């Protein structure tokens, strides 16, 4: 049944290659479909490596939790205890940010530095003064790749070893992960998937560079550098299910509002309740590759879905996870129902919003709202490498309390909310855990 469903989903979304797996107690099931690379096809199986992108953050956080348990650092202590040279756009924030705030995305850092290719974590952190600060530390959650890259430097300073070496020693080896690795030099030792993006006429082409955008060399490894397989990710889920020392990572630390990521952040993990059952997970999006890992601790259950096409891989993975939860556990999330179109509300929020790398456009034609989001044109034009495609305008439905949901396209089902200033003026829009500030 799993194989039949995965094939159906992959074909419906036009994804060249997908792999999925379900762990339920002592039972494991795998399914795979398609090929690793349209230009040089090899069959996908449960051992094929896909780029994990942000699922890597769960490994970085686990390493820091284990260092804290060993007495090597205090998660509640300031980052500057270990990175005294840290400079940020706001000097007060640089002095206040704690390691724990990096791990639950409450440090107030915007998403990431997108220009340049820093070859070391120290080099990356030396440029963080250019990154906007969106809030005082601890006052709100906003998803940040930069925060996890900074956390990687904390690991190096605490141990005196390379970040990747520490993750290998403290995380990958104890969990028995033999195919999970950083960098193409290691990836090419195994069968691996190539990402694909559509060109102007919709034809899928292999994505370059392999891995994440921005490329960033080692500087982006802590936030998104790992590659892994379905078989290894189910071992990773089993490791977290069985490790008592890691259970505190699944306790809520900050509430999330109207977020598809979940209801709260633990230590890295996204937390949500589905039909009254706690579910933890993390997703990742690279250049033409998407990864999802979801764990249901109370049912000793986990599901993994990996796909090698953008943007179709995201909804394909979401459909796979939803099917697995419903078919195996009878859990079905409730979908929000948009309100009737309100022209005055529509004109109040229509406009352009931005963060450091991307623009978000909300528009109305007098009958409905749309949302488009993509990489800033200047960044795309200046880049010497291919970049993921933008998400074109798709229908947007308003919900009560300044919340919204995207109802079609590659981001269908994504929720967000609007931020107002003290005068009630809309000044920001949150999407996928990131704050886009309104451009006047």
UniProtKB/TrEMBL annotation:
Residues 3-312 form the Beta-lactamase-related domain. It holds the Pfam family Beta-lactamase. InterPro entries: Beta-lactam-related (IPR001466), Beta-lactam/transpept-like (IPR012338), Diverse_Enzym_Activities (IPR050789). This is Beta-lactamase-related domain-containing protein.
